[in-house]
Amino acid sequence: MRSNIADTSITLLAVDNSARSTSQIAVLGSGRVGKSSILQQYLNGGFSNAYTEPVEDIYPKPYDINGKRRFVDYMDTAGNIYFPAMRKIYISKAKGFVLVYSICDSRSFEEVQKLWNEIKSVRENNLSIPCVIVGNKLDEENKRQVETFAALEWVYRDNLGGCFI
Ligand SMILES: Nc1nc2c(ncn2[C@@H]2O[C@H](COP(=O)(O)OP(=O)(O)OP(=O)(O)O)[C@@H](O)[C@H]2O)c(=O)[nH]1
Ligand SMILES: [Mg+2]
């Protein structure tokens, strides 16, 4: 996971030639699939089993690229989107996406496909938008509802990057 999110960040910084020094990566997906946990693990190196209430939060992370300090704002979003208008803003503005589903929740897999379709319908040049699909809760194999093959087949067909964690 670590390398996939990091790769996404580097890619989007490399293509961002604007004067702004901040780019946004939106982490989207259904409620309780593990978006906040993944971000905490990536940014702080830790994981807690405690569930925290869904909040919309911004985590800036600095990167030194060619001697210049650039920031990536990781946007943690609420899965049970109470604010559809916020989702529309993320979808229209983010430079990159991490779309998360749980392998134990087939509806969450349908949701990431809907999200990607929405991104494609709103954004031009969507093939150049860095987007990583994450199948989370791999440790819950006994409750699996989404077959690895189904996810890989979709990711391959839609030219997306992916990982299972
Ligand atoms: N077994 C297992 N549990 C996980 C994993 N990742 C997260 N969880 C648990 O799943 C629950 C939900 O995780 P969150 O990270 O809060 O999920 P979220 O997607 O941010 O949820 P919302 O903020 O409601 O949208 C928590 O109890 C986590 O501890 C995982 O890989 N495996
Ligand atoms: Mg959360």
Q: What features would you highlight for this structure?
A:
165 residues, alpha/beta, six-stranded mixed β-sheet, 5 helices, 6 strands, 26% strand, binds guanosine-5'-triphosphate, binds magnesium ion, membrane, GTPase activity, P-loop_NTPase, Small_GTPase, nucleotide-binding
Q: Would you kindly provide a written description of the structure presented here, covering whatever features stand out?
A:
- The structure is a single chain.
- By secondary structure, the protein is of the alpha/beta class.
- The chain is built from 5 helices and 6 strands; from the N terminus they run H-E-H-E-E-H-E-H-E-H-E.
- It has a 6-stranded mixed beta sheet, with helices on both faces.
- Mean pLDDT is 83; it is low at 1-17.
- Residues 29, 31-37, 49, 51-52, 54, 78-79, 136-137, 139-140 line the site of guanosine-5'-triphosphate (GTP).
- Residues 35-36, 54, 76 line the site of magnesium ion.
